[in-house]
Amino acid sequence: MRLMRHGNAILVAAALFLSAKGGRADTYLSFTVSTGAVTGSSGFLDFQFGPGADSQAAFVQIENFSSDGSLNGTAQVSGPNVGGSLPGIVKIDNSTGYNDYYQPFNYGQTFSFTLDVGGPAITAPNGTSTYGTSFGLGLLDSNQNNILTNDQDGFAATVELNLDGTLTPQVFPSNNSGGAPVTTIADVAPEPGVWASAGFGLMLILARRRARRQPSQPK
């Protein structure tokens, strides 16, 4: 019976571990942006994350940035909690009214990245805020004019963080005649629970070792 109790304790601990790891409620979106029409030119990539008057705290992380174009110098940053640098992870909080990462860029045929959206506005919507937060991706030429979009605000794509914690992505045609979208956005699953699996395996090993150390029970 003693071994059974230990085994049950290990299984309960493993379930709690897996639940804790699996409880993360960040949402992940995969962006693929076609820039073939401006290949070989220089300009800027603009990543903005702006709240409303009473938006809940939230953040975005730009991850897994990849391109056949090239970064062209140091990014300009606006906002006290904008950190990191491409092609690594860039994190932007919605802590002030204007939060921006503005990256000089030499355009190739395409670039892509994963957008991780998280924070209380995603994990625990409060039901009292009246404004969400907006993520915007802008593409600009060397004169800082918006390109490859017909959006009046100049974005090639946006993601609205809604009051219930859901997301509404939108892409804009590349011209006023309704051409094919430059940007595609797809939901993606978070990275596999490698650490959860490793933790579960470790617990099983500990359970076996503990069982071997138990003294034999008299018959």
Q: How is this structure best summarized?
A:
The chain is of the alpha+beta class.
- Which structural class is indicated by helix and strand composition? alpha+beta
Element order, helices and strands? HEEEEEEEEEHEEEEH
Question: What is the overall silhouette?
Answer: globular
Summed up, the domain count is 1
Amino-to-carboxy terminus distance: 13 Å
Given as residue ranges, the uncertain stretches (5+ residues, pLDDT < 50) are 1-24, 192-209
Report helical residue fraction. Answer: 10-25%
Main β-sheet, in a few words?
7 strands, antiparallel
Strand content: 35-45%
What is the mean pLDDT? 82
Assembly type of the chains comes to single chain
Strand tally is 13
Alpha plus pi helix count:
3
Q: Kindly provide the radius of gyration, computed on alpha-carbon positions and rounded to a whole number of angstroms.
A: 23 Å
